[in-house]
Amino acid sequence: MNIVILGSGNVAAVLGRKFKAAGHNILQIVSRNASVASKLAYEWDTESTNYSSIINRNADVYIIAVSDDAIEDVVADLQLPRKVVAHTAASVSKEVLKNVSDHYGVFYPLQTLHKEDVDLPESPIFFDGSDDITKKKLEALANSISPKHVSQAGDDVRSKLHIAAVFVNNFTNHLYALAENYCKKEGIDFKELFPLIEETISRIKAISPSDSQTGPAARNDEETIEKHLKLLQPHPQLKKVYEALTTSIKEFKA
Question: What is the CATH number of domain 2-153?
């Protein structure tokens, strides 16, 4: 397919690389950040522009890969009649594109993406469209880069998936950051925890996280919990998180 990408951030960069690897042709990159867009254009042997008024009109699909709060601004004066146009946001309705084209939808990669990635991560794709033409085109594009993980998902389902994703990625990563900071302050090597992290991830692929929960809170080991809280007195932010999660584990019912 011939593709135009609007945006030059993490999602735009990784999707662009995946499209290229799948044999698609990126006709153009459109971004207000001319410098970054130019670098991506050089990488993909294509052209870039920071003017929406001169968007290439010969693409099969137009992918709007910008931050959620920038979508409305980007599409405010965008007109691509009869073209398939999709944004990549989980929590933004496809209807934000209804004035851009008759064929509009969503192309949402459920993955944390970084433009510096050399090895492109496996990314489940969730798509939706205003009509069959849009759905078929976006499904075909999704299958070309993620053949085992493509599903249709409406606005409500994608929003719920995004909430779950925040828990397993953003919140979990924040806990790693807190633990790393604690280790630095206490003279501990954070890397000593890597085998535990890897085992935790490996285990939940085989059994439910509810069934694999361990630790003092799961055992109602009040003596150990109190010892931990005393040790955390010099780390009030971490102590607050420890108390909140301990309570959550104790009260959790699947």
Answer: 3.40.50.720
